[in-house]
Specification:
The chain is an alpha+beta fold and 385 residues long. It has a four-stranded antiparallel β-sheet with strand order 2-11-1-12, sandwiched between helices. Strands 8-9-5-10 form a four-stranded antiparallel β-sheet, covered by helices on one side. It has a two-stranded antiparallel sheet with strand order 3-4. Helix 1 crosses helix 8, helix 2 runs parallel beside helix 4 and helix 4 runs antiparallel to helix 7. The longest helix has 54 residues. The radius of gyration is 36 Å and the shape is rod-shaped. The termini are close together.
């Protein structure tokens, strides 16, 4: 796993080199270590550093969250498969650059000039990541809106005849609609087709307004049931009924387990839907391409700012822990599966820095992890391959 401990310890006898060598001697066989070069930053007052320390922790959590969200989006867009790809290169190869960027960290003077005060540098990094976050959310929203519209249109053509769109099946000659007559489309379960054909003509009746008729008339046009299409579960029929008894027919049909499809025929609608489908598919591909391109760029921007904030954070904590002038060595440790062994080795190296430190564990009265050296976790990736 790409989880590192970013630690800092005071220079031994004024020598950062000795601090680094001591760490290597004690842990090189159980962990992978890297020196981290942090430039001389403007310190300001200790009171200001204490205030900044609390803010740094919040900024750190926020930036890590943004970087991990970007990573998750890249993984999602890359898809599955033996070797997920992003913009023509293996995804893991692209993401591994962050690991290299951390272990070979170099301060970007052009982006974050060290002559700036620490609060100003922090705000520059925070503003950078906030802008990335906003752009990312906007791109995701645009893509999801198009994708949602496409999915909705695709769902219209999916499922059985009792639910799916009828546009591609119903022709103009299937529909009879006059002042007194109307067409009803019925999705009939295959097990009920025989009963439907036998009884549908008797499912409604009405008495005409003409006083010459003193009896009810059949509300269904005889032999008007026409099979339009079928699938594995249903057969679709059109039935012509008198408008005066359309509602009564529908009630009887539902009682017979027939699904009434409320459908209004519009000439040319099939072509319109097909064109809309093609348009949305093209828009979806274009939006996805823009989202991936934007996310790859923004991932580099945000992760770079986040690592610089980590550097500032370890600098501030070291000054607060060890005092001025800042003579400490920042180091990255990748313990892998040897966390307990590495912690014991570090306790042996730096236990003398804090008399109240329990070398055998972190079960002290505060019930909170504390080490006599500056320590913070760097979890590069939200997910591991």
């Amino acid at each position: 796993m790409s989880v590192y401990w970013l630690i800092a310890a005071p220079a031994e006898n004024g020598s950062k080199e000795e601090t680094w060598k001591s760490l290597q001697r004690m842990t090189m066989e159980i962990s992978t270590n890297h020196r981290m070069k942090i430039p001389d930053l403007r310190v300001g007052t200790l009171d200001a550093l204490m205030t900044l320390s609390d803010e740094l922790e919040k900024h750190d959590r926020y930036m890590e969250g943004v970087v991990h969200r970007l990573e998750k989006e890249l993984r999602e867009q890359a898809g599955g498969g033996a070797e997920p790809m992003i913009e023509g290169q293996p995804l893991e190869h692209f993401l591994s650059r962050l690991d290299t960027q951390l272990t070979s960290f170099e301060w970007d003077q052009a982006r974050f000039p060290v002559k700036q005060a620490l609060p100003e540098l922090v705000m520059m990094m925070q503003d950078c990541v906030s802008a990335v976050d906003e752009k990312f959310k906007q791109k995701v929203m645009e893509y999801n809106t198009i994708k949602s519209n496409l999915n909705a249109l695709e769902r219209k053509g999916q499922g059985a005849l009792n639910a799916k769109s009828l546009v591609e099946y119903v022709r103009k000659d299937h529909v009879i609609a006059t002042e007194k007559l109307n067409t009803v489309f019925c999705a009939v379960p295959k097990f009920a087709v025989a009963e439907f054909k036998d009884k549908y003509e008797g499912w409604s009746a009405f008495t005409p307004g003409n006083t010459k008729f003193d009896r009810e008339l059949n509300g269904v046009v005889p032999r008007s049931a026409l099979k339009v299409t079928e699938d594995s579960e249903y057969e679709l029929y059109r039935v012509v009924v008198f408008r005066a008894c359309e509602d009564a027919f529908k009630v009887k049909a539902r009682e017979a387990r027939v699904t009434i499809r409320d459908f209004t025929f519009t000439e040319g609608q099939a072509a319109v839907d097909s064109e809309e489908m093609s348009k949305l598919k093209e828009q979806s591909r274009d939006a996805k391409t823009k989202l991936v391109r934007s996310t790859t760029i923004n991932y580099k921007e945000a992760s770079g700012a986040w690592l610089h904030l980590k550097a500032i954070r370890v600098f501030v904590e070291s000054v607060l822990r060890y005092g001025l002038p800042p003579t400490f060595q920042a180091m990255l440790i990748k313990p892998g599966k040897n966390e307990d062994r590495v912690r014991k080795a570090l306790a042996g190296l730096y236990g003398h820095l804090s008399a109240g430190y329990d070398k055998d564990g972190e079960d002290g009265p505060n019930a909170q992890k504390f080490y006599p050296y500056v320590d913070m976790e760097v979890k590069l990736f939200a997910e591991e391959a």
